[in-house]
Amino acid sequence: MAMTTVWWILAGVAVALELLSGTFYLLMLALGLAAGALAAQAGLSSTVQFVVAAAVGGGAVVAWRAYRLRQPSPSPASANRDVNMDVGETVQVTAWNADGTANVKYRGAQWSAAHVPETGDPVPGPHRIVEVVGSRLIVEKLPS
Q1: What's the average pLDDT block by block, 10 residues per block, for the chain (144 residues)?
Q2: Angle at which helices 25-41 and 46-70 cross, to 10°
Q3: What is this structure's pTM?
Q4: Positive/negative CA dihedral, 16, 22, 27, 33
C-alpha cells in the first residue's frame, strides 16, 4: 500500500473519531495527517512526511488552544440569553420587601425577584432580568 493511502486512511480515522468524541483537537490532528498525505504525494521522504504531519497537526492544536484561551468564558446557562429566553427581558417592580425580594408579574404569572447585590439598594421601577435561578428572577435596575 502506498504511503499516500496510509496517510489518507489515518486522516479519515481521525475525522471519524472526532465525530464520535466531539473534540475539535482530533480534527486539528487530522489536518496534520492530511498534510502528511500531501507531502507523500509530493514524493518527499518518510522523515519529511512525519515532520510535516507533526508540524501542521501540532501547530493547529497549539493555534486552536491559543484561540480558545483568548475567548471570553461562556455565561452560565441561568444567565445566558442563548439558553434562557427570559434573560434581558424587562419587568416592573412596584415595591421591594424588607428581605430584598419583590413579587413581579411576568409572562402572566407571579414571580419572586431579587436585585443584583452589587448594584446597591433596590428601588422600584423598570428592571432587566440578568439571571434566572430556579423560580427566582435576578434583576438589575434599568438606567433612568
Answers
A1: 93 94 90 96 95 96 92 75 81 87 88 82 87 87 82
A2: 150
A3: 0.57
A4: negative
